[in-house]
Amino acid sequence: MYTTNASRGLPRHRSRYPAERYTRWALRGLVAALVLALLWLVLAFHLHGQPIFALLFLVLGAALGVVFSRRRLMSHRYIFPAVAGMALFVIFPLLYTIGISFSNYSSSNLLSEERVRSQLLSRTYQEESATFGFQLYSTDEGVRLHLEREGRPSESGGNVDEGEAEAEAALRGVTRFTTGPIPLEGEGPRHVQIHPAEGEPVGEPLAMREVIAYRAALQNLVLATPEGLELRMAGLRHFAPMLDRFEARDDGSLYDRRDDRLLIADRETGFFVTDEGERITPGWPVAVGLDNYARIFLDPDIRGPFIQIFVWTFAFAGLTVLFTLMVGFVLASLLQWDQLRGKALYRTLLILPYAVPAFISILIFKGMFNQHFGEINLILDALFGVRPGWFTDPWLARSMLLIVNTWLGYPYMLLLCMGLIQSIPKDLYEASAVDGGGPLTNLFQITLPLIIKPLTPLLIACFAFNFNNFVLIALLTGGNPDILGASTPAGTTDLLVSYTYRIAFQDAGQNFGLAAAIATLIFVLVAGLALLNLRLAKVRV
To answer: What domain count does the chain have?
Structure first.
């Protein structure tokens, strides 16, 4: 007869097994710790001005708390980690990339407008009209610095600008300054207080070669006058005042005190611009709509290379699937030959390329195809007297890629074809032999029709993989040789994925917005292939 906790006087919610109860409390503590960690990430991203990431972790934390705190959602707890991982590492990066494609996000438009304004306001410049010559003196207490004014604006007859006026007001006519013993060791800025000099400097002056030896330490010195004016090293023998270059105005503009010009925030381009239209870097990202997509198809310097790379990407993926299928199918058919001995040995040897890491094989082939020292060219030179430029000629470079990728991919097709051929009933071949059918009849009437249907989804998956085969391009050719006349880094052997990478990380401008637009187009194409694959797989089932 079964008993319950209630019949034994135990509370209903308590388990008869202490280990189960402790495990439940441990899981609850783990969930609570994860929620707190996510909330900490939300606060950290919010304080660092990253609202999108803060919102992401807020949603994840809220979902985690809701799913693991409600009993009626218990069945969803087991799949929640997978869904959360997909949202964090797949869906969010995808949406973030699509969002970037509608902006001018790049190396020159990277910071927010507030951070750009703050960075510009923190810039200083040296006021050369109030320079001080300096001399180092060695004393018993250490090395002292003595500065002496070299000239005044009124003596040169020039107009006094705002920077000069500020420097003159801070100096108050003082022409000579001195310091106490100054630190000349260590790294990083060092602030030293200076005061007006009375009388001649004390100590022995150091020679020029000794001053040059202390140059790095002198460049780190920040000399502050009693009125707060800062002097920095402006040359091998000079210090000059450091003044704030930009001044914020009430209307949001910035005044450039050094060049006497006004900077207006242009929120269409994401830059502060002058009256002449000159853009001051850095800028901030702004929405540009479909401009990046329009550049791909309308800008001739981008459209030409893009179309060429687009066509080559489809050709590369398609020819790779065709060549690997042909080699794999032929070898699989030979391995099914009844009169062939040592099938196990041949099968092992033919599958070995699949066991070697791809990047090792690619680097070995890169050395073998070397134009001057590679084994392939040495053989061709010995037999035919030619040394093909595998890495400089576009068509030879593409042929090399197809050869190497066929070598890397045929073992996979070999395994697939071997399994499918072995599943074909032997009775069909016996009936064909009775009817007088030969090897070609068996190939085209029995073998190919029976294996091509289950192979089709796998061939589409292989096509999609090679469509984004970044590793092969990056390690073997790097996309070279380059396409002449392209305004972005583009090579004749680039695939769309490597082309996108080069625009985002190897171009001087690092145009992330344009790269994101191309990546979005790649996603649409690969997603279409995936949907086609699923539909075909469903039909086969």
So the answer is: 4
Tokens representing 300 are 């001739």
**Phi (first) and psi of residue 77, to 5 degrees:** -65, -35
238 and 253 part of one domain: no
Instruction: State which amino acid sits at residue 5.
Output: N
252-260 contact pairs (CB < 8 A, 24+): 254/117, 254/120, 254/121, 257/125, 257/161, 257/162, 257/163, 258/125, 258/163, 260/161, 260/162
Q: Is 262 helix (H, G, I), strand (E, B) or coil?
A: strand
Which H or E run includes 529?
Answer: helix 512-540
**Do 207 and 320 have their domain in common?**
no
Count of positions (residues) in the chain: 541
Bridge pairing between strands 195-196 and 204-205? unpaired
Q: Are residues 365 and 238 in the same domain?
A: no
Question: pLDDT per residue over 222-232, tens digit each?
Answer: 888 888 888 88
**Residue 155: per-residue pLDDT:** 47
Burial class (CB in 10 A: 0-12, 13-18, 19+), 132: buried
173 & 230 share domain:
yes
Domain membership flag for residue 14: no
Q: Which pLDDT tens digit goes with each residue over 38-89? A: 889 888 888 887 888 899 888 988 888 888 888 888 888 889 889 999 998 9
Residue 156 has a pLDDT of 44
Residues in CB range of 164: below 8 A, 6 or more apart: 127, 129, 130, 153
Tokens 């000794």 correspond to 210
The answer for 436, left when phi > 0, alpha when psi is -120 to 50, beta otherwise, is left
Summarize pLDDT for 85-106 with one digit per residue, the tens: 999 898 999 999 999 999 999 9
**Could you tell me whether strands 271-273 and 143-149 are parallel, antiparallel, or unpaired per DSSP bridges?**
unpaired
**What single-letter amino acid sits at 157?**
G
* 3 state SS of 147: strand
CA 319, CA 188: separation in Å to the nearest integer? 58
- Distance, CA of 44 to CA of 55 (rounded, Å): 11
Q: What is the 3-state secondary structure (H, E, C) of 90-125?
A: HHHHHHHHHHHCCECCCCCECCCHHHHHHHHHCCEE
Per the DSSP assignment, residues forming a β-bridge with 231 are 223, 241
CB-count exposure of residue 299 (10 Å: 0-12, 13-18, 19+)? middle
Judge if 285 and 147 occupy the same domain: no
- The boundaries of the domain holding residue 436 are 297-540
The answer to whether residue 489 is domain-embedded is yes
Task: Retrieve residue 293's tokens.
Answer: 């997509």
| pLDDT for the residue numbered 1 | 44
Q: Is the pLDDT of residue 165 over 80?
A: no
- For 254, counting Cβ atoms within 10 Å of its Cβ (0-12 exposed, 13-18 middle, 19+ buried), the class is buried
For 199, which DSSP code?
Answer: S
